[in-house]
Amino acid sequence: MDDFMTLAKARYSVRKYKDTPIEDDKLDKIIEAGIIAPTAHNEQPWRCYVLKSPEALEKINGLTRCAFHAPVVLMFTYNKDEQWKNPLEEGVTAGQEDVSIVATHMMLEAWELGIGSCWVNFFPNTQTEKAFNLPENERVVLLMPMGYAQDGVHAAHLHNENRSRDELVKEL
């Protein structure tokens, strides 16, 4: 891609994937994009579970229809004990935001490499944590199925519809 805006505008959610596996070198680049992502106070509380074994994929496809039978599903979590906590206000933490930043970096790097993905929140979080025996202090935030898009896949009909700048941005 020529620049970030071109990349950001071109990317869309892919919900139908080829059976083609993602090459290890490309998966490594996607993971590296997450590793270099900024986090609050650089605490890096995030974890990414790469679900690609037949057993892991069967399990996640059994928990949600929104894994879309992708050849890889990234499961993002954060460690509640490692997340930054705002000292100025009780209960304000950054774990979920940190995961979101990391996942966005990885999603965009995947697209740059020709690999589609979809940000998924439609799954039973607690049940998923138990099914994958996650540590008690980890909270799953999102799933990201990814792989090569099936031929003919295109952006959803609402993909390019945005609210106006005046509605979204307020100068104070």
TrEMBL record:
MF-aspect GO terms: oxidoreductase activity
InterPro entries in the record: Nitroreductase, Nitroreductase-like
Limits of the Nitroreductase domain: 9-64, 68-148
Cofactor: FMN
Keywords, sorted A to Z: Flavoprotein, FMN, Oxidoreductase
Pfam families the UniProt entry points to: Nitroreductase (PF00881)
Top-rank taxon: Bacteria
SUPFAM superfamilies (alphabetical): FMN-dependent nitroreductase-like (SSF55469)
Matching PANTHER family: NAD(P)H NITROREDUCTASE YDGI-RELATED, NITROREDUCTASE
Family: Belongs to the nitroreductase family.
Protein's name according to its UniProt entry: Nitroreductase
Organism of derivation: Pseudoramibacter porci
